[in-house]
Amino acid sequence: MSLEGKVAVVTGGSRGIGRGICLRLASMGALVYINYVSRSEAAEETRKLILDAGGKAEILCFDVADISAVQSSMKKIVAEAGSIHILINNAGITRDGLMARMKELDWDAVLDTNLKGAFACAKAVSRVMMKNKWGRIVNISSVSGYAGNAGQVNYSAAKAGLNGLTKAMAREYASRNITVNCVAPGYIETEMTELLAEEVQQQIKEEIPLAVFGQVEDIASAVAYFVSENGRYVTGQTLHVNGGMYM
Ligand code: NDP
Questions:
Q1: Sign of the torsion formed by the C-alpha atoms of 19, 21, 24 and 28
Q2: How many CB atoms lie within 10 A of CB 54?
Q3: Residues with catalytic annotation?
Q4: pTM to 2 decimal places
């Protein structure tokens, strides 16, 4: 399904799941803005992959947790590209640890990036989407936000918060033809999961009915559904892409 003429912003689009989403949206014809915060070389690589495949992409560095940086970056995109039609709130971090030992800094960092960042980006694009009477926002949540995960109270809380943000926004913006949905990945092969020790990865796989980790393309496919015309009548929903580990 074509996204020709659409402008998409993917936060944390430089690597991992975000890169997979950027490649997919670009292959569907969108002009994709690849956001990152620190690793410019990864963002350049994503852009090169898109350009080599005949797609359109730009790069923009900003911290999603910095509300004024988000606002000025979104304004810059609208000035350059004319509009923003699609926002994928994908940027996310982990600062794992048992609650008893979790530092306030680790709580704040995860809530700021994973939850406040999504709020800031969605708020910043909502005006132009309302003007267009068309918009697609997809928040990348996690199985941890639904099932909970020991050692991740900060991350689980932030991701559960995204679910509430999604539903409330979906209700507020539906009359303007803006849909807001969530994709909740299980374990997907990226640098985030590579951080897990080999034996931990094996234990997790034993609890996944499909018995393997997912690929970034599995998440990109779910996002593609929500932003395409196929998903036009779906809002406020979560699509769980997790090999059956939470149902
Ligand atoms: P990665 O760690 O591979 O990539 C994270 C991306 O987010 C990078 O592009 C990074 O930019 C960017 N980023 C981090 N902090 C900020 C910030 N403050 N502002 C802007 N960009 C930022 O993550 P994954 O691809 O594994 O995960 C992507 C999303 O999917 C996250 O929301 C994660 O919680 C979620 N998820 C992942 C799962 C998995 O198994 N991998 C499972 C469930 C959910 P830079 O390169 O500059 O650091």
A1: negative
A2: 8
A3: 155
A4: 0.98
